């Protein structure tokens, strides 16, 4: 049997491959794909290779300024936004840490500046073995700081 973790309605996650730690994440069983708040999302040609460039604001990650990222490991997909509009979004894969375990998952890059949480974790991630208890919050983070 697959092991499962109980996760609350939100938690605080790490994205170590992006050097991002203690990022607030909302758990959203209504969303299929997870989302990461960023800006200046551009697909550029870098020496003949399609590359996505994006920035994550310092306010999101507790730093001054913003951090620029680039990767050629991405895809693009049509995703229905929370408002019901179909958007063509860039999708990246990275590792996420919860409950001391690393999970490889996909994130769509989008502007979530009007949202309370810079990260949204959707069903595609949650089906890796998570049960959602909406009465709880920050279960993974509480375990992390207790160690």
Shape call: globular
Rg (CA only) = 15 Å
- By DSSP, the count of extended strands is 12
Portion of residues in beta strands equals over 45%
Q: Can you list the strand order of the major beta sheet? A: 2-3-11-4-10-9-8
Mind describing the biggest β-sheet?
7 strands, mixed
**Annotation field: number of helices:** 3
Helix content: 10-25%
Q: Average pLDDT value?
A: 91
Structural class: mainly beta
* Series of secondary-structure elements, N-terminal to C-terminal: EEEEEEHEEEEEHEH
**Poorly predicted residue ranges:** none
Molecular structure report:
By secondary structure, this protein is mainly beta. It has 3 helices and 12 strands. The chain has helices spanning 58-61, 123-126, 139-146; strands at 5-7, 10-15, 20-27, 34-37, 39-46, 49-57, 66-71, 74-80, 86-98, 101-110, 119-121, 130-132. The protein has a 7-stranded mixed beta sheet with strand order 2-3-11-4-10-9-8. Strands 5-6-7 form a 3-stranded antiparallel beta sheet. Strand 5 and strand 6 form a beta hairpin. The two termini are 27 Å apart. The model has no long low-confidence stretch (mean pLDDT 91).
């Amino acid at each position: 049997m697959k092991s499962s973790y109980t996760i609350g309605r939100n938690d605080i996650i790490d994205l170590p491959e992006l050097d991002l730690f203690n990022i607030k994440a909302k758990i959203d069983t209504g969303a299929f794909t997870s989302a990461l708040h960023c800006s200046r999302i551009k697909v550029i040609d870098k020496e003949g290779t399609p590359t996505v460039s994006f920035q994550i604001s310092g306010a999101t990650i507790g730093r001054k300024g913003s951090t620029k990222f680039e990767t050629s490991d991405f895809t693009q997909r049509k995703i229905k936004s929370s408002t019901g509009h179909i958007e063509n979004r860039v999708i990246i894969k990275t590792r996420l840490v919860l409950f001391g375990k690393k999970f490889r998952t996909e994130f769509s890059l989008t502007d979530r500046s009007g949202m309370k949480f810079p990260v949204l974790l959707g069903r595609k991630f949650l089906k890796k073995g998570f049960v959602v208890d909406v009465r709880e919050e920050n279960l993974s983070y509480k375990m992390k700081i207790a160690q």
